[in-house]
Amino acid sequence: MIKSLVFLGAAGLAAARVQFLGVSIAGGDFGCTIDGTCSLSSTQIPLKSLGGGDGEGQMKFFAQSNMYNMFRLPIAWQFLTATAGGPINETNLAKYDQLVQACLATGATCLIDIHNYARFNGKIVGQSAGGPTDDDLASLWTALATKYATNDKIAFELMNEPHDLDIKLWAATCQKVVTAIRKATNGKNTQIILLSGINFASAGDLVKTGSGEALVAIKNPDGTIENLMIALHKYLDADNSGTHADCVTNNTAAFGEAAAFLRAAKRQAIVSETGAAPNNTGCLAHFCEQNAFINANSDVFAGLLTWGAGSFGTDYLLSETPFFEGGKFINQPLTQQCVVGTFMASTAGVSSLMEVTTTPMEVTKDGASTVVVSAWLMLLPALLAYLVL
Ligand SMILES: *[C@@H]1O[C@H](CO)[C@@H](O)[C@H](O)[C@H]1NC(C)=O
Ligand SMILES: *[C@@H]1O[C@H](CO)[C@@H](O)[C@H](O)[C@H]1NC(C)=O
Ligand SMILES: *[C@@H]1O[C@H](CO)[C@@H](O)[C@H](O)[C@H]1NC(C)=O
């Protein structure tokens, strides 16, 4: 009896909020535009030692203060190979790897994101005459998967924001890449792969573009769907571009539709990009509502990653780059309230935990003690699993 109650408690907690919380540590993508050209003179790998932002310090801070456990590390395809399908530029990969290692050092899962809009220099992968082939993309991912084969804290977002292309052909391209990655890692399915649909991976267009249907058909070579998830992006401005300061929606309609599709398909997604202007009161309200909704639907939304920090200044339109004052980092108010705040407040599963624990808990409004209680709660599943066994 007690054991089954304990098990219910763990299940309740798992459904309470997203498993992965974090932010893009951007800069490796700077200079990339939606036609898949990337001006490498603009690349700013977000490490101070490489002349970029202090991504290393930010990730440490975010992991310790915000409980972030996933960082997305965007990079230009051209930075890694000068030509599509060409040899890896080992000097550049070593620079990117410094960022990856700084991420891994925080204990977080690190999401490699090829930030090329399904294109290389204006041509669509597998769809433009004379453009990059499926094998060109597969060879890039084979090299990356081989390099990080032994680390299950590495995850792969095959491509940032595909758009204006044939979704069925694109899904076939992704299938080849998934097969290549799993082959490079001896058939183990333990690393997460994120698959992106068209209209810039739009959460609101997942169903109507046929992206959802095409992407859920992709399988691991062994026929399973283990650790194959969908990447969803969504902004709150009028045209969903993330280029305007005004927020016009809390996106619950879009994410609600995506959630219903995922639930019916028995699949999960990670919201790998969303963001809003940090000093805009309308944005604060809408963004907090959106993120509370994503947390409340964590059975299908496994992660919530915002945009962006890294080499962005604190004055960038959608900046989540923390301020550095008096020798320490301080969150942007938007980050504090709408990312950390909604995550902390999303404790729908706690009531079922309360039934199974006799430890008195006092969740106060005070930030510090909330952190302590929440950190303790995160250890509970392990403790409960131990008790069940
Ligand atoms: C690697 O790329 C850099 C520019 O990003 C370039 O200077 C260097 O020559 C390239 N190395 C090789 C081996 O192609
Ligand atoms: C989001 O906005 C809609 C429409 O304005 C509203 O009905 C809904 O309650 C909001 N959602 C949340 C979670 O506040
Ligand atoms: C938001 O306000 C802070 C404090 O005034 C300022 O430093 C920051 O640059 C502003 N951010 C934007 C995007 O305007």
Automatic annotation (TrEMBL):
Domain Glycoside hydrolase family: residue ranges: 55-303
Highest taxon of the lineage: Eukaryota
Cross-referenced InterPro entries: GH, Glyco_hydro_5, Glyco_hydro_5_CS
SUPFAM superfamilies: (Trans)glycosidases
Swiss-Prot/TrEMBL keywords: Glycosidase, Hydrolase, Signal
Entry EC number(s): 3.2.1.4
Keyword Chaperone part of the UniProt annotation: no
GO molecular function: cellulase activity
An example Gene Ontology biological process: glucan catabolic process
Catalytic function, reaction form: Endohydrolysis of (1->4)-beta-D-glucosidic linkages in cellulose, lichenin and cereal beta-D-glucans
Pfam families cross-referenced by the UniProt entry: Cellulase
Residues annotated as signal peptide: 1-16
Gene3D superfamilies linked: Glycosidases
Keyword Signal: yes
Protein family according to the UniProt entry: Belongs to the glycosyl hydrolase 5 (cellulase A) family.
PANTHER family for the chain: CBM1 DOMAIN-CONTAINING PROTEIN, ENDO-BETA-1,4-GLUCANASE A
Protein known as: cellulase
Organism: Echria macrotheca
Classification of source organism: Eukaryota, Fungi, Dikarya, Ascomycota, Pezizomycotina
